[in-house]
Amino acid sequence: MKLTIDNLDGNGARDYTLAVDKTRAPRVLRRNRRASELRLSLVADDPDFVVPGDGARIMLGRLNGVDVFTGYLSAAPTFEYLGWNERGPVYRYNLVALSDESLLDRKTLPDRHPFIARSAGEALRQLTEDLLPGVMDTTGIADLDRVSWYSCDRQRRWSEHAAELATRARACYHVLGHKVFFNSLGTTTHTLSETDTSFSSGTLKLQGKHVQGNDVILTGRSEPQAYVKDYFVGDGWMTRFYLSQPPFGASSRTLMDEEYKGSTLATTRWSVTDPVGATRVSTGALQVAGGTGVDGQTLVSFVEKIELGGALFLQHGDVKFDAQSSGVLGGLYAGTITASQCLAGFRVLPGGSNSNIQALINGALTGPVISTQSLHHYVLSTRLYSSEVYRKRQIFHSSAHPAGAGRGGQDVAATTRVVLEIRDMDPANPGSLAAPSTVLYDGVVANAPALCTYALVNSTNLHCSIAFTRLLRLANVEVRSARPGEAYRTRLVGSRSDGAECRVTGDPAVQFFPQSLPIEGEEIVVRYRGSGESLTRVKDAASVAAEKSGFDDGVRGALCEALVPPPYTSVDCENAALALLDDTARCGWSGEYETWSDFLPGNAVDILPGDGLQVTAPSRGANFQAYVREVEIEILDLAGEHSRYTIRFADEAADSLSFKLDSTGSAGDLDVDAVERTQLGTGFLSDLTDAQVTAITSTTVSIDAGTNLGPGWVIEVRTSDFGWGIENDRNLLGRFGSRTFTVPRLGPAQTYFLRQHDASSPAKYSRFSSALHIDKPL
């Protein structure tokens, strides 16, 4: 083998092979989803010996050119005094190096929006290029499964992100020779069989592990639960209306804030298609001057998809038109970026000597037309209110559901309210800066797509400047009101400076600004989701029966919180629990095998963490598929290239590679009934998401459940959100077999909780309640 070290002093790599201390064999430690480590010692062999410095590039490879380790010294060598010879003092220099990802770990990730619906490999490839463009070879990164949402925490190192993405995709990674490899576990598989002629029985250590869990309680993140509608009435002076529950996602946060500083668009935010050079950044604004004249050819689009979940506020910017224009600004596209595929956007068309702006919904123009005026500024904004917060299920893996065949990943159906608004600001009229926005469109898009492409600019022939662009996650609260004799309209939630009419406070309450105060008799409906802990309990009856013996009922309980991948909903928790039970409900194996490099299992040239290992040892009752977790290489004969390999391995039942779990962090109410795994997914009826109050008197409330009932189905109404079941009547107001019904009103403020159930035994219920709260004078 050959050892070279480049001290990065301009003299290139030096050969240090003869300086390797022969009394201390070099050791390479390869660890799954972690940097590899090389430890060795050098002894000066000539007067020109150069002591390697911190950060020096080190390469250890075979004479045939195959690298065993490449990386960088993680610290300056430690000096160990050995004595004195005719040349002077003699030292041993102890070196520790980490593999090539240490070069990436020294960098700080740029600020970027979370990855949305990107494959794990695509995300890792992008993070690598963000840190060291063109330095690392990323052709060894496979795409693998898509990750619904992944935040690039700048406080974490590249290797930490690589490890988490590998966990989410059930993959392994390593970096060698400045090339990043990212593949499914077991892409390369070796056979370790006691029938092989080179098998060493004495160095194989196996340990069987009992069933870890066949009755699993698994918790995830806080999730949106009850579908809440609060009903109020204005009296002409009240500004604050208190909500019946704390809303899920009650706080607002900025996801992206672009001020167009510098001279180019940041590639971590924007993708530009501009054949004729019509776009540029200048004087703190995005300047657009023309286009090809063809729809969809001159584009400035956001690099990530937009998930149409919860409440979103897209401020497309302060737009000033320089000439007659044509194109689409602030468009959301379900398919290709063309006007006909635009779910929602602002269509700009020539109008006289200036331009006209109109709402573009599902490819069609609708609503009022705003004619632009010279020197005026126009702030264009889109608000989205989805009936569901999360539009993509998480994907979970196990040995039975590897990369490409994970559990979950489906879209979540939802309706989305779209509000397009525009503020016309005249620099010559200071009062226009505080004027409310004009709503161009306020309507519901049924079966809205889960993801859209956001194109800020789709220029056929636009001539304008855009001063800023922001993407905000609003408080997940939709406020609508109707004055006597008028239809309901959406009240804009946010800051007063953005033209909003009200805000959500931490009480929680909706507070209207003075200029938007509800008049006497104005009906107000506030719609949002309640919150609670996502969790599930799933049992594997077959495993319980197999483990049952004597006084032991066979149950092996497990209580854990899933950290990676994170379950955002109870449905995610169910998929995660099923994936866990694929492996924890059976006995597992782990072990260690020691052999020489000449006799690696299956005549392999080398072995890496993440490789599959088919272990067949009939004399020990072992026949299982494991994965290599760690490889330790002790190079005992540097010249002859003979090394001793210690291979540590385990199967998924002994140690999961698909999850990062916390068995100590679960808290809260965990009183939940176990569901047999074969019945999971069939235990709930649909939620009454569209239930609403239709009439209120001093003694009664009329309710429309929002959906027709199935045969034998019943709507159950209670005064509190617990006690569901046909055997419990303590908080029951009634059971109704029709879509519309009337319940008694017992006071000025009251909440009705609704779920539907069927006629089966035991009855199936909705997963979450619909909560209808009224707060009106009698």
Q: Runs with pLDDT <50, length 5+?
A: none
Domain count: the total is 6
- The CATH topology of the largest domain comes to Jelly Rolls
Mean pLDDT: 95
Element layout with pairings:
Layout: E1 2-6, E2 13-15, E3 27-31, E4 37-43, E5 57-61, E6 67-73, E7 78-85, E8 88-99, H1 101-105, E9 115-119, H2 120-131, E10 137-141, E11 146-150, H3 158-169, E12 171-176, E13 179-184, E14 189-193, E15 204-209, E16 215-233, E17 240-242, E18 253-258, E19 270-273, E20 279-282, E21 285-290, E22 299-302, E23 306-307, E24 311-321, E25 326-333, E26 342-351, E27 354-361, E28 364-371, E29 377-386, E30 395-396, E31 407-408, E32 416-425, E33 438-445, E34 451-466, E35 469-473, E36 477-482, E37 489-491, E38 502-505, E39 509-512, E40 523-539, H4 541-547, E41 557-564, H5 570-584, E42 588-596, E43 612-617, E44 622-637, E45 642-650, E46 660-662, E47 675-676, E48 684-685, E49 692-696, E50 700-704, E51 714-718, E52 732-736, E53 740-744, E54 749-757, E55 765-766, E56 770-775
Parallel strand pairs: 10-13, 14-43, 16-41, 16-56, 40-47, 48-55
Antiparallel strand pairs: 1-2, 1-5, 3-4, 3-44, 4-8, 5-6, 6-8, 7-8, 9-11, 12-13, 15-42, 16-40, 17-39, 18-35, 19-22, 20-21, 21-34, 22-34, 23-34, 24-29, 24-34, 24-35, 25-26, 25-34, 26-27, 27-28, 29-32, 30-31, 32-33, 36-37, 36-40, 38-39, 41-46, 42-45, 43-44, 44-45, 49-50, 50-53, 51-52, 51-54, ...
Helix pairs in contact: 2-3
